[in-house]
Every structure is written in C-alpha cells, then in structure tokens.
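Table S2 (text version). Query chain:
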Amino acid sequence: MAKRSSDYRKGLIERLKKDPDFQVEYLKASLEENSDMPEAILMALRDIAEARGFEQLAEAADLSQKSLYKILSDTKDAKPRFETIVKLLNALGLRLTVEERPHAS
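Corresponding structure-token output:
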C-alpha cells in the first residue's frame, strides 16, 4: 500500500479529531470500499485511534496500549481477531451491522 503524504495525513487526523461524525463516515466508507483489503480497514481504525488517542482507546477497549499498537500496526502481519475488532468498535461507540447490498439495475 502506498504511503500517504504527511500533509494529507496531518490534515486527516486533525479533521478526525474535530469531527466524531466524520470518524464514523470515514470508517464506514473504508469498510464498504475496502472489504477485500483488511489492511485498509485497519488503517482507518489506526487513524481514528490516533485522533482519539491510543491510550484512551486501549483503556476503553480493555487492551494494553502495546497490544493496540500491534493490532493496528501498518505491517501486514497484523491480523486481529474478530472479537478484538468488536471491542475496538464498542470502545469507539460504534457497532458492526449487516445490510443487504443494493441490486445493480
């Protein structure tokens, strides 16, 4: 995956810090557009964790900060368990839902 520019990333993190609704839309878009790329979804979670603070999120998810960094690392070795993702979503005040895909016309 290509590295994002530092200016873009800095702006993204600032926007995520200021706008909780944008955090939700950002993660939702990542899930919808990258269902075949789990590393992109983890990247979105990592961006939100950075905006909210890794320490706060780790505590809210009942994880150690070291574990959270490992789970959200940008290496392809990170393969968090489903229940860990659910814990993170819960800590973010979110839930995972399922809906029917729109049919192509």
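Notes on Table S2: The CA atoms of residues 71 and 77 lie 9 Å apart. The chain has one domain: 13-91.
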